[in-house]
Amino acid sequence: MRRPDVLVIGAGVIGLTTAVCLAERGRRVVVRAAEPPLETTSAVALAVLMGPSLAPPDEADAWPPIETTTRWHREGVAAFAALAERPGTGVSVMAGRWVSHREQDVSWAGGLPGFRPCSPEEHAGFAEAFWLSTPVVDMPRYLGYLTDRLAAAGGELEIGRIESLAEAAALAPVVVDCAGAQAAHLVPDPDVHPVRGQHVVVENPGLDTYFFQFSRAKAMTMFMPHGPRLVLGGTAGRDDWSRTPDPVQTEEIIARCAAVEPRIATARVLSVEVGFRASRAAIRLEEELIGGSRVIHNYGHSGAAVAFSWPCAEAVAGMVPLAARV
């Protein structure tokens, strides 16, 4: 392949989506990643699109402002609802219970599809509980879909490490940094913190709805059916880089989920998966000049990476034509 117009760093959902947007606009795109898509954090994401109240903070000086993240959420939901209509994407629209241990303002949910308050029996011991119908994503299948779509648009995926942005800048006139939590080391960016998440995958005992606890606690109760698999969560360990599954956390996750759905207690465990969300006070979506190349940063999405993947990729694509060579 000739020298690319754009080098994208990272093959998670942010990197692949950005690469697809650029390649489908005629750019020569190479994705360079230390890990293949199915070994990234994105592959183990629970991937239910979150509500606006769970978007990044809405302080007056925060960026992006709440108006932007709310718009991104709306655009992300629309994009994944459209993908749910296509066969082979791994995206579907599913009903699920959203719960919280504290009562709160959930007016943002009232106009969303499938909203209805839960019955007392459906609260499962939580103070707040309601139903929604939202796009959910089987991430291994979806990452495969994005990889195929990138190849169909002429993009390439290379497995290999990029040790610095200066190294990347020598390879292409435009570099898009979608390194996720690894941006802490690559940039380096001290504002990026890994948030370790552990999930347990079991045989689905027959569930066709999901359960999602919206919380910023270190331990949450959630499960997501994807055909024969059921993904159980979860944890949030800040500044924890350990990839080794914690057997105590595994048992705690199963116990929390089984307290809601007893059939989970006897479901056969298929795997235990660990990933690192890229936590940052604000998503970084901006550019800088390094070694004569434009470097566009697109990371720090924390738990909203899937939901924000398409709107942020479109924003990057809007920045690239000014410098990219066709």
Per CATH, the superfamily is NAD(P)-binding Rossmann-like Domain
Distance between the termini: 14 Å
Total domain count: 1
Taking pLDDT < 50 over at least 5 consecutive residues as the criterion, the unreliable ranges are 52-62, 322-326
Share in helix = 10-25%
Q: Report the strand count.
A: 15
Strand content: 25-35%
What's the CATH first level? Alpha Beta
Specify the biggest β-sheet. Answer: 9 strands, mixed
- The class by helix and strand makeup works out as alpha/beta
Named CATH topology: Rossmann fold
Rg, nearest Å: 20 Å
CATH architecture, please?
A: 3-Layer(aba) Sandwich
Element string (H = helix, E = strand) = EHEHEEEHEHEHEEEEEHEEEH
Mean pLDDT: 92
SS field, number of helical segments: 7
Shape label:
globular
Distinctive features:
326 residues; disordered C terminus; Rossmann fold; alpha/beta; nine-stranded mixed beta sheet
